[in-house]
Amino acid sequence: MSLPQPVPPSWKDLGKSSNDLLGKDFPTNGLALEIKTLTPSNVAFKVAGTRDSKSNLIAGDIEAKFLNKPHGFVLTQTWTTSNVLKTQLEFDNQIAKGVKLDLQTALTPDTGAKSALFTTTYKQPGLHTRAFLDVFKGPTFTADTVLGRDGFLLGAEASYNVTEGKITRYATAIGYSAPEYAVTLHGLGNLSTFAASYYHRVTPDVEAGAKAIYDTRSAGNVALEVGAKMYLDSAAAVKAKINNSGVLALGYVQSLRPGVRASFGLTLDTQRLNDPSAQGAHKVGASFTFEG
Q1: Is the dihedral of CA 20, 190, 140, 131 positive or negative?
Q2: What is the mean pLDDT of the segment spanning 177-190?
Q3: Main-chain phi, psi angles of 23, to 5 degrees
Q4: What is the 3-state secondary structure (H, E, C) of the chain?
Q5: Burial group, residue 86, by CB count within 10 angstroms (0-12, 13-18, 19+)
Q6: Which residues contact 140 (CB under 8 A, 6 or more apart)?
Q7: CA–CA separation, 40 vs 263, rounded Å?
Q8: Are 283 and 53 in contact (CB under 8 A)?
Q9: Predicted pLDDT at 3
Q10: Average per-residue pLDDT in the chain?
């Protein structure tokens, strides 16, 4: 008798465990601050800002999210320091179970630049599919689908330019996901770039992962990155990763109290430690999150 199949991850989340391990909690490009609050009427506010250590430029945004959970409706409005106005409308499980509609728009009043992306998502056991229509770019229609059964995953993505009448991009992926580990192989960029990722929860306190990328259009070697994460206790963790170019990144995450989180990151080019001109290759940064 076949066991019930879970909903597989979306196309963008294939290999997510490895990507999060190697990509998150390494704040090495400056300072970042994020403040989140939630009102009793289900209105969420978020203010975020970053200061780039190289250019000293400060960028930020303020976001308001209106939640209506009984009706599956979410309205998000964002205003950035680049004077970009963003609006997102989400309707979940209103037309049919497993169907989500999403409209994202952006407007820059200074230049008149605008964008609109309409997304339809359909999820059910063993299937996760999405369709995107970029209204002002092309217009371009993009669709991706992931099939899953007994831990095995098979996905594909393709983009079609309506004006030009041709497929502009396609990709595929295959993987296997288990509670303790996951393996994913991607063929991206019209099958010109291949990426393999691996994630393993070695113990409840230790995670390890690796990612390799090979671009057939370049004469370079395979880009390889490996990393690990160790939980020191329930409130602290350390991370480390290194790539085949000798760039070492270290991260430390600490929950100071409920709703307050701090992250610190350091990047070192191990092949240029004694090079006085390589100061820009070494980076340090921090990130602070306050949530109430």
Answers
A1: negative
A2: 95
A3: -115, -25
A4: CCCCCCCCCCHHHCCHHHHHHHHCCCCCCEEEEEEEEECCCCEEEEEEEEEECCCCCEEEEEEEEEEEHHHCEEEEEEEECCCCEEEEEEEECCCCCCEEEEEEEEEECCCCEEEEEEEEEEEECCEEEEEEEECCCCCEEEEEEEEEECCEEEEEEEEEECCCCEEEEEEEEEEEECCCEEEEEEEECCCCEEEEEEEEEEECCEEEEEEEEEECCCCCCCEEEEEEEEEEECCEEEEEEEECCCEEEEEEEEEEECCEEEEEEEEEEHHHCCCHHHHHHCEEEEEEEEEC
A5: middle
A6: 132, 133, 134, 159, 160, 161, 162, 168
A7: 29
A8: yes
A9: 64
A10: 93
- The pLDDT value given to residue 1: 40
Q: Dig out the tokens for 199 from the structure.
A: 């994630």
- Whether the Cβ atoms of residue 226 and residue 212 lie closer than 8 Å to each other: no
Q: Which two tokens mark 116?
A: 């609109």
Each residue's pLDDT tens digit, 129-144: 999 999 998 899 999 9
Q: Quick one: which of 208, 168, 170 has its CA closest to 187?
A: 170
The encoded tokens of residue 87 equal 């609006």
pLDDT per residue as tens digits for the range 221-259 = 899 999 999 999 999 999 999 999 999 999 999 999 999
> Which residues have a Cβ under 8 Å from the Cβ of 164 and sit 6 or more positions away?
138
Whole-angstrom CA distances from 283 to 99, 205, 248, 270 are 43, 27, 10, 12
Specify the pTM: 0.89
The token duo for 39 is: 């009102």
CA 237 to chain centroid: 20
